[in-house]
Amino acid sequence: MLIIQAIGFGVITAALIAIGAMGFTVQFGLTNVLNISYAGAMTVGAFATFLAEVVHLPLVVGVLLAPLAAAALTWVLGRTLFAFYARRGAGLFEMVMVTLAVNLILQFGIDAASREQIYRFAFPQGASLHVGPFTVTVTQLALVVVAVAVFGGLEFLLRRTRLGKALRAMAVEPRLARTCGIPTARIVTVVWLLSGALAGLAGLGYVINALTIDASVGTSFLPLVLAAAILGKAGSTRGAVLAALALGVVTEEVAAVGGAAYSTVAGFGILAVVLLTRPAALAGQTAGKAEITV
Amino acid sequence: MSFYISTLLVYFFVDVLLAWALNLQFGWGGIPNFALIMFQAAGAYAAAVVSLGPDTGAGAFQRYVFGSNLPFPVPLLVAAAAGGILALVVGVFALRRIRRDYQAAILLIVSLIAIGAVSNVVGLVNGSNGLTGVPKPLSGVLSGLTYDGYQWVYAAWAGLIALGVYLLVARLGGSAWGRALRAVRDNEDAAATIGLNPMGLRMQAFVIGGVIAGLSGGVLVEFLAAWSPAAWGYAETFAVFTAIILGGVGNNWGVVLGTLLVQVIFLQAPTFLPQIGYTGLIDALEWVLIGILWLLCLAIRPRGLIPERRHRAEPPPAGAVARATAAASPAPGMPQ
């Protein structure tokens, strides 16, 4: 029974990881910037809603503030700082160092501003529902619905619209895309905003589930998001969702059977096994020709 | 004051060990080891559990595995071995030929997950409370010394270890092995073409670096007498990166200068400042400044204050080439 219940929790965890991983991978696939400061953006999104709640703004406004704040932050960072280092010829690894430094600044800046405290995050959970063998709250169900909606929306955007077509063209061959008249600068802007908004949503979802908030929530959530994005292959939303499902269900199953302590270790186990058994999936990908486009 | 200076000296030597380990792995081997601090932690935990004595079982105030009472230098050897073994295990999957940004991200994930696991699995090394009461080495033999005197003896001991490790890394760096490692870093395909084994060389560098990092953890934990997950947050790794990037990646002395500036002067000096705000505010702001310092280094002096020396092969003396060619007269019919 516990094991079946854990599948339900697994799907909820997977929904959270999927929202984060989709936002990460869309941006990574296009710009090749492995953006560690995504963790900081998740924290900023979560804190935006938390602060809105502290000053008693309506719930809807608070929820909308999370993606908006994170999107604005990510866009500004992408367009100023990351673009600056890319212009100076930073390679793939140098960009990781830059985004990591930014994450350090964001995390400890928020840490200083929040007086290094852990706060209770009282988000209304709604009534408990019984769906088959699973018991979930309205809010948890809403998280899953949001994840599905984000996935559907992204799939539609990428495969059915002109913008999506341009985006995919640019991910494959940025210079050729620009030569063909695709407004690459505008598309990069769209992608930074989109990635940031999803980071904010993922961060908010994480603290809704965790019930507490502090400056390190983004960094605590980052390993799973990053693992899902890497396992799902850079740029692939479908891959990210599948990897998130696998990670979510496995980590919750392990938590149900062996105790919560081992759940993240299990998530990492999956990543290690894939690295060992299918290194080709990650190895070549675009090694050599991948270049930073911001 | 004397107490403060001897403490700083021990920190400095430990941080220099860590910086040389990273310089070997990242500076010469090109491995973006974002999990560096985890190897120091492995050494620290290993040294702690083998000197704490047997775990007294349920009800004890701290729980851990492998509790034993090994005599003085042995815990340090165990620490070094723990760092090396962990490096071997992590290296098996993290050193595969993958994009360097992926590699960095994977090592960062390893570090974050390791700290989460160690904090939550209480039976391993006492979870998030950590271990305390690690005995000071040779405190029986040196019992005649004052507390202050012992500090200085320990600082000298740490300095001796640092000297030994310096001789090792300097020797490695100048050797054929070191040149091969840098060749792999600069152009893996070309290095493989001339018969070098990139994966093997990287693994060797990673393990030697792991051993040095583990040793530094052992030296540190025997001095501090305590160790907990708070001591090895991922940010600590980046203090070391900042130090070697500021000082000069690939240059052992540049790395020492960077460590002195970042780890000792920058991160320790604020303890002299009067307390401002709440407890911990200065710590948090220090990390913000480390991040800014790092961005500035990358923008202004990416090669560091004392850059890596360009290694040039000595041109062979005149005539040597001709003699060598004559001696190795090719078999007839061999394609030239």
Provide an overview of this structure.
The complex is a heterodimer of chains A (294) and B (336). Chain A is mainly alpha-helical and 294 residues long. Chain A has one domain: Orthogonal Bundle (ABC transporter involved in vitamin B12 uptake, BtuC). In chain A, 76% of the residues lie in helices and 4% in strands. Chain A has twelve helices and four strands; from the N terminus they run ααααβββααααβαααα. In chain A, the strands form two sheets. A two-stranded antiparallel ribbon of chain A has the order 1-4. A two-stranded antiparallel ribbon of chain A has the order 2-3. The radius of gyration of chain A is 19 Å and the shape is globular. Chain A starts with a helix and ends in an 11-residue tail after the last helix. Chain B is mostly helical and 336 residues long. Chain B is built from 13 helices and two strands. Chain B has a two-stranded antiparallel sheet.
Lay out the secondary structure.
The complex is a heterodimer of chains A (294) and B (336).
Chain A: H1 2-31, H2 38-54, H3 59-87, H4 92-113, E1 119-120, E2 128-131, E3 134-137, H5 138-160, H6 162-172, H7 174-179, H8 184-210, E4 212-213, H9 217-231, H10 237-258, H11 263-277, H12 279-283
Antiparallel strand pairs in A: 1-4, 2-3
Helix pairs in contact in A: 1-5, 1-8, 1-9, 1-10, 2-3, 2-4, 2-8, 2-9, 3-8, 5-6, 9-10, 9-11, 10-11
Chain B: H1 2-28, H2 36-51, H3 73-94, H4 100-120, H5 122-125, E1 131-132, H6 147-174, H7 176-186, H8 188-193, H9 198-224, E2 226-227, H10 234-247, H11 252-268, H12 281-300, H13 320-327
Antiparallel strand pairs in B: 1-2
Helix pairs in contact in B: 1-6, 1-9, 1-10, 1-11, 2-3, 2-9, 3-9, 7-9, 10-11, 10-12
Keyphrases for this structure?
heterodimer, A: 294 residues, two-stranded antiparallel sheet, B: 336 residues, mainly alpha, 2 domains
Mean pLDDT of chain B: 84
Biggest sheet, spatial arrangement of strands of chain B:
1-2
Order of helices and strands of chain B: HHHHHEHHHHEHHHH
* Number of helices, counting only DSSP H or I runs of 4 residues or more of chain A: 12
Please state the oligomeric state of the protein chains shown.
Answer: heterodimer
* Helix percent band of chain B: 55-70%
How would you sum up the major sheet of chain B? 2 strands, antiparallel
Radius of gyration of chain B: 22 Å
Major sheet of chain A: order of its strands?
1-4
* Radius of gyration of chain A, CA atoms, in whole angstroms: 19 Å
CATH fold-level assignment of chain A: ABC transporter involved in vitamin B12 uptake, BtuC
The count of helical stretches of chain B stands at: 13
Strand content of chain A: under 5%
